[in-house]
Amino acid sequence: MRDATGAVRAPWTGLAGVLDGAGPAGLAARREHTLRLLADDGVAHHPPGAEAEQLWELDPLPLVFDDVEWAGLERGVAQRAELLDRLLADLYGPRRVLTRGLLPVEVVDGHPGYLHGWRRPAGSAPRRELFLSGVDLGRGPDGWTVLGDRVQAPSGAGYAMANRRVVARVLSALHRRSRIRRLGPFFEAVRAGLQAGRDDRRIVLLHPGPDAETAYEQALLSSLLGLPLVLGSELTVRDGRLWQHSLGRLDPVDVVLRRLDAEWCDPLDLRPDSRLGVPGLLEAARLGTVTVLNGLGAGVAENPGLVPFLPTLCRELLGEDLLLPGVPTWWCGDPASLSHVRARLGELVLTPVARGHAPVRGADLDAGERDALLARIGAEPHAWAARHEPALSTAPVVTDSGAEPRPVTLRTFAVASGEGWEVLDGGLGAVRTGGGGPLEGVATPAKDVWVVGERPERTAPGVPDEAVAATAPAGVSPRVAEDLFWLGRYAERAEDTARLLRAVTDRWADFRTSPEPAGAGALRALLVATSEITRTEPGFAALPADEDPGAELHSLLYDRNRPGTLGFAVHRLTRAAQAVREQLSTDTWLVLGRLDTVLQRLAAAPEPDTGDVSEALNRVLEGLLALAGITAESLVRDAGWRLLDAGRRVERAQHVVALLAATLCDAPRGPADGLVVESVTIVAESVITHRRRNAGRPGIAPLLDLLLADRDNPRAVAHQLDRLADDLAHLPGAVPGSFDAAVARLAAADPAALAARDTADGTRPALRALLAGLGADLDRVAGDIAAAHFAPGPAPHPYDLLAAP
């Protein structure tokens, strides 16, 4: 932020004014605002080994560059991308840099990132090896230095966009008056480069799955670029071509933009234990029937052992000097360099050239540890490199005590554009507290990066920073179809469970201390019915009549690890949404984040009273109703939406069936029956309609007609079957016979006969038989939908075995 004299650099003056005016309290408020917006937008990452996603960490103060300084970085980043692309083209082609001695063979062939199977056949035309390149940069006393190259499957560009959207709102006044270059045109350049002038190219984004560290970013990129997000299990190679499974058909794939390290991409030719890749992908790419970007052999370019040779390679391959130097590095396979490393071990950082191994600081080792390390290096010198630890400049970071200086780095990106490279005007800043950054498992905040100054020419019109430019994919894969189906089911299950628990909580508040026998009987009947409906065993039935059911009721509210609870349904709903994040509106995360907050606060309360519980359930229902509106009004009515709606219909019908079976089939309860029936109408959201229609019609038959057969009642089973019929008609394949059986069973039912009680024991056997049959039919319908439309096979391989890109 300051120059050598201590004066504030020109591009930072606006931010300096914010710091001077805000003070510690104002900065703390901006940090809280940042956290709130990140949560509302659902910006998250999944650290390796963590059980769940964590909120992305972002400092509200950006890194700021003027156009002059950025122009120098831009040229250096573009040059480096071109250099690595040409180097890779040579290494997988004629290998002239090796035969001429410009690069030791051991640096290349001894690196696990070099894929011999990726070599081009003699005489074949060169191919582009790099499409997207990332480079980590740090500024020190002597200017900018390259800290590392990211060309395997570079992460961070999507998070840069997410950072911008948040910081632009937190510092809205400063953002509006500062001529900040937009990020959107870079993503337009990525999209244009993938299309390569052809609108008919079928492009997919291959990723490891919803538990990947950067799953949020992958979904955001899918939306920004308009690409379907696919798993390896959704692709297949047939007759030398790559295809994507869609409902009822196979779609050809022309280009794969991969977010998966190469070794995991093909279990046939690469890592055999991978269940993330596509058998035969490498051979299809070698044949040229599909283009894989970045090339599967790009990982060797991240080898730190290359760094000492890059200046010479740049002059040889590009005919110019390297603009951005690397950190002084010694490859231990060179005897002279190894001698230097032995002599200066305490001043250096030792790094295995293969990814996935942590660097070792020589200064942190005692004499015995240094000797052991030198022995390891001596046994395999080509596998090690050493470098000086760079001194990094600092920037202001918001802490508990205000703004403090912290070392920072920058990751920015270049994308191949025609004959050159388009560089992102900004990037992903990171506050450094150790050897990693926010995408490498280190819990430090990221930073937005502002480039101030006009840029008159752009190769593409750009994408607004403020809105996701989502494009619907050509087809819906079986995996997405299944996740959307379960998203619908869990959304409906959560809503139904919340309504049930709210009605029971209200009765508990009314009758827990009441001497009225009817109230106590109704409460007991509703509690037992709740356990039956939610299938939570042993439930209330196991509690003695005089024992307070509060603990069990609270467990049903927020225990996310117990199937049948509201907390479990909301947790599974969130997981299903994360799996299809790219399909959903960003407003979805505003709703889901607040649902989770409500339940967490309820769980943290030592003994929440019934008023707190009722208020929490009201807020949960508000959120679930908002989610229903979002999914109903923001999604295209394609096969995916049809399956989401089908999931809702199956679940709602099953809930009504279970509700009636648990409350209306048993023997009479005397005066408590009226209260139980009223509660049923409340849970089924039909109490007003029932009262209005049946004020003069006592008995159960009108209620059964309303909840089972009334096609105009949105909560009735018949209405669900009508909606389900419409959904199934829009899906490929025939309507399952199980659905026809459910329709026929319901059509044959007579509400008056169903309401009749057995003269011997007072139960309603006809109603019980109908409901049992309908429940079994609905289970079969769900199973038939799964068999017809969802992908069979094993679950994806756990991502925690992979190194983060």
What does this structure look like?
There is one protein chain. The chain is α+β, with helices and mostly antiparallel strands and 805 residues long. The protein is built from 26 helices and 21 strands. The strands form five sheets. Strands 3, 4, 5, 17, 18, 19, 20 and 21 form an eight-stranded mixed β-sheet that branches. Helix 9 links the parallel strand 11 (255-258) and strand 12 (291-293). The longest helix has 34 residues, at 478-511. The chain is elongated and about 100 Å long. The two termini are 30 Å apart. 49% of the residues are buried. Residues 435-443, 459-464, 466-473 and 793-805 have low confidence and may be disordered.
E-strand count: 21
User: What is the strand content?
Assistant: 5-15%
* Tally of DSSP helical segments: 26
What is the radius of gyration computed over CA atoms, rounded to a whole number of angstroms? 31 Å
* Classification by helices and strands: alpha+beta
Distance between the termini: 30 Å
| Overall pLDDT score | 89
The low-pLDDT segments are 435-443, 459-464, 466-473, 793-805
- From the spread of the alpha carbons, the general shape counts as elongated
- Major beta sheet, specifics? 8 strands, mixed
Helix content: 40-55%
